[in-house]
Amino acid sequence: MEVLVNDEVVELKNRDRKVGSEAPAARVEMLSGETKVIGMMADRVQVMITLANCDDLTDGLLKVIKKHSPKVYIYIMASTELDTKYDAGMTSLNIKDFTLKYGVNINDDLCVKSIFIIDKDGVIVYKNVLPDLLSEFDPEEFDQKLSEAINFKKKGHTHENWMGV
Q1: Alpha-carbon gap, residue 50 to 131, rounded angstroms
Q2: Segment 8-54, tens digit of pLDDT
């Protein structure tokens, strides 16, 4: 996948992750000093947000994060220190491992802006990788897709169907 960086087309490093594929596990050191392994099966939906600059954490994005944070794990990987005091246990400036595994790495110190929503089974159900470093996320779309992921009910056989009733 290619993105525009300073008027230059740059090929992102490593794999392009697809919706419907298994999310890779990534070891990430958070600002709190804690190391977490994120991106695999979990007891809640996970959101992985990568930001190129501290200014990329917009009010609209923060509003959606705050609305859903009690129900999901929201991790932010940023290329630069964030101006806002988002939870240090959920924020990392150590982006290289994560961004390489998720295919959003520009170089060792810079990533493209992206959002990945991963369901409880560890499957990527939503992906939004912005085409350049200046574009902004659509908070309404993010809110809608996150609500859908949180409220998704897994379909399978019911006891009555299995018994032939």
Answers
A1: 13
A2: 777 776 677 889 999 999 999 998 889 999 988 999 999 999 998 87
Dihedral sign from CA coordinates of 22, 3, 97, 66: negative
Give the DSSP H/E element, type plus range, for residue 2.
strand 2-5
Q: How many CB atoms neighbour CB 12 within 10 A?
A: 20
User: CA torsion sign, 14 to 123 to 33 to 51?
Assistant: positive
- CA-CA-CA-CA torsion sign (11, 37, 95, 65): positive
Average pLDDT over residues 69-76: 92
Instruction: Work out the pLDDT band at 109, boundaries 50, 70, 90.
Output: confident
Where are any strands of DSSP class E within 7-133?
Answer: 8-11, 26-29, 35-38, 45-51, 72-78, 91-92, 105-107, 110-111, 114-118, 124-129
Query: What is the dihedral sign for C-alpha 159, 160, 164, 165?
Result: positive
Tell me how many degrees the CA angle 85-88-89 measures, rounded to the nearest 5.
145
What is the average pLDDT value for the chain, to the nearest integer?
A: 85
